[in-house]
């Protein structure tokens, strides 16, 4: 996969290093040569170009015409939206992702057909989850946090009950059980044992109901 990342701050540099380490073709665009090279580190296996990510010539030099993914991850919402729209509308990059600081702009970006990541919104939702759902470990969020994967060690009250008892269509369902260090995909009739590590997909609006079914107390 050919990936172009505009902006080499904390998010941009980590994404670039992660993708490059997995064997992807990564090009980073940043106007701060020294800072960018320092953040990427000597082990970075991609390419670094000095310039502005919304400059047409710089984008062409980066190979935008053959890019599979363009990530606008600079510290400016305005720069990110301009670069993302150029990548999508002019160069027809199949997948364009823009980092967003102001979550109020998210709906505008979505109407333009752009995927966005708001660290502000995600961070606030994560804090809320950790503060109010203390016994549920959220390990992954989808979309804007509407759906999550949570992990929990089966309480003694769940032992002897089945996966069917912990399934509510459209709200939450068990996707994996780890027992004695071995994970498996359960069936509806699988019986829980105390100490099982259970992974569950759940709608954020149903976290409270899930806690009730698990016999957990929620903090207000």
Strand-helix topology:
Blueprint: E1 2-6, H1 10-21, E2 25-30, H2 33-40, E3 47-50, H3 56-62, E4 69-72, H4 77-90, E5 95-100, H5 106-111, E6 115-118, H6 119-132, E7 137-142, E8 147-153, E9 172-179, E10 182-184, E11 197-203, H7 207-214
Parallel strand pairs: 1-2, 1-4, 2-3, 4-5, 5-6
Antiparallel strand pairs: 7-8, 8-11, 9-10, 9-11
In words, what does this structure look like?
This protein has 220 residues and is of the alpha/beta class. It has 2 domains: 2-118, NAD(P)-binding Rossmann-like Domain (Rossmann fold, 3-Layer(aba) Sandwich), CATH 3.40.50.720; 133-214, Alpha-Beta Plaits, CATH 3.30.70.1450. Helices cover 31% and strands 27% of the residues. It has 7 helices and 11 strands. The strands form 2 sheets. Strands 3-2-1-4-5-6 form a 6-stranded parallel sheet, with helices on both faces. Helix 5 (106-111) links the parallel strand 5 (95-100) and strand 6. The longest helix has 14 residues, at 77-90.
């Amino acid at each position: 996969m050919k990936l172009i990342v505009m902006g080499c701050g904390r998010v941009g540099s980590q994404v670039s290093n992660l993708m490059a380490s997995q064997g992807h073709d990564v090009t980073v665009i940043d106007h701060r040569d020294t800072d960018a090279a320092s953040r990427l580190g000597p082990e970075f296996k991609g390419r670094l170009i000095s310039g502005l990510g919304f400059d047409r010539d710089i984008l062409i030099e980066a190979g935008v015409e053959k890019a599979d993914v363009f990530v606008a991850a600079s510290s400016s919402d305005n720069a990110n939206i301009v670069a993302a729209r150029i990548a999508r509308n002019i160069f027809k990059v199949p997948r364009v992702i823009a980092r967003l600081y102001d979550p109020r702009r998210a709906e505008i970006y979505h109407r333009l057909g752009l995927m966005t990541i708001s660290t502000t919104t995600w961070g606030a939702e994560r804090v809320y989850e950790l503060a109010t759902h203390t016994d549920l470990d959220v390990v992954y969020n989808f979309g804007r946090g509407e759906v999550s994967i949570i992990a929990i060690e089966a309480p003694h009250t769940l032992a002897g009950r089945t996966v069917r008892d912990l399934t509510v269509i459209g709200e939450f369902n068990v996707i994996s059980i780890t027992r004695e260090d071995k994970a498996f995909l359960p069936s509806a009739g699988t019986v829980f044992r105390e100490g099982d590590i259970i992974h569950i997909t759940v709608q954020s609006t149903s976290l409270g109901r899930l806690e009730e079914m698990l016999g957990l107390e929620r903090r207000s």
